[in-house]
Design a protein that fits this description.
By secondary structure, this protein is an alpha+beta fold. The protein has one domain (2-99): 2-Layer Sandwich (Ybab, Chain: A). It has helices spanning 2-26, 63-96; strands at 30-34, 40-45, 50-55. Strand 2 (40-45) and strand 3 form a beta hairpin. The longest helix is centred in the C-terminal third of the chain and has 34 residues, at 63-96. It is rod-shaped, with a radius of gyration of 20 Å.
């Protein structure tokens, strides 16, 4: 019995290390998103950290328009980054789940 528990604990610790390594790797995965007319471009990491924002000079004359562009493009980029993040971390977590009867709903 204790061997099973120790084995599960070891597997959980290994999975936790893999999750941390995956999070670090996701800092290097970049997600680019542009407005439909190309006047605004943002780059985020898959961990949803903004790396860059490029704004065309024509948007600098209309504050409200620029704000709208930022909201739309950032939300699209965050959605893409979240999808990548959840898929990557979910795969690692699923792989590391111990085989516990009754908890196969996670597999």
């Amino acid at each position: 019995m204790f061997g099973d528990i120790m084995g599960m604990m070891g597997k959980l610790k290994e999975t936790q290390q893999k999750v941390e390594a995956t999070k670090k790797r996701l800092d290097t995965v970049l997600v680019d998103e542009k407005s439909s007319d190309g006047l605004l471009e943002v780059t985020l990491t898959a961990n949803r950290t903004i790396r860059s924002i490029t704004i065309d000079d024509s948007l600098l004359t209309d504050k409200e328009q620029l704000e709208d562009y930022l909201v739309l493009v950032l939300n699209k980029a965050i959605e893409k980054a979240t999808t990548i993040n959840e898929a990557e971390l979910g795969a690692v977590a699923k792989e590391g789940m111990p085989n516990i009867p009754g908890l196969d709903m996670f597999k």
